[in-house]
Write a structure and sequence with these properties.
The structure is a single chain. With 142 residues, this protein is of the alpha/beta class. Helices cover 37% and strands 18% of the residues. It is built from four helices and four strands. It has helices at residues 2-10, 61-68, 71-93, 111-123, and strands spanning 19-26, 37-40, 98-105, 128-133. The longest helix has 23 residues, at 71-93. The chain is globular, with a radius of gyration of 16 Å.
Length: 142
Amino acid sequence: DLREKIVAHFATNQGETFTVNVMSFGFKYGLPIDADLVFDVRFLPNPFYIESMRPLTGKDEEVSSYVMKWNETQKFIEKLVDLLGFMLPSYKREGKSQLVIAIGCTGGQHRSVTLAEYLADYFKKDFYTHVTHRDIEKRSRK
């Protein structure tokens, strides 16, 4: 079909014709308009309330370890990875060129960043992945 011919013509590598874009964001700055799937992680324990972690981000080991240590986080990741593992091949098979998975927490600094990094790393073995942190540079004025 035409779509397959176009994709084949422009693809540099057949394995990279489908991109999984994982984005962290803060709900207080609004939903990302280009997100295909949005997951809210505000139910997870928030490192913002620990003074020493407040200026850090989910890219820092101290914060990511804190976010990942909770049973709720582990259970959520298990369920989310299972769901995405089921969905991603189907999106690729349908000819979608990219999928934007947005992970949101309150400010887009800690929990969402940790989980976006985790997901991008987890799925890179099977898909071309890219991770962005939309609101990581924004800081609370508190």
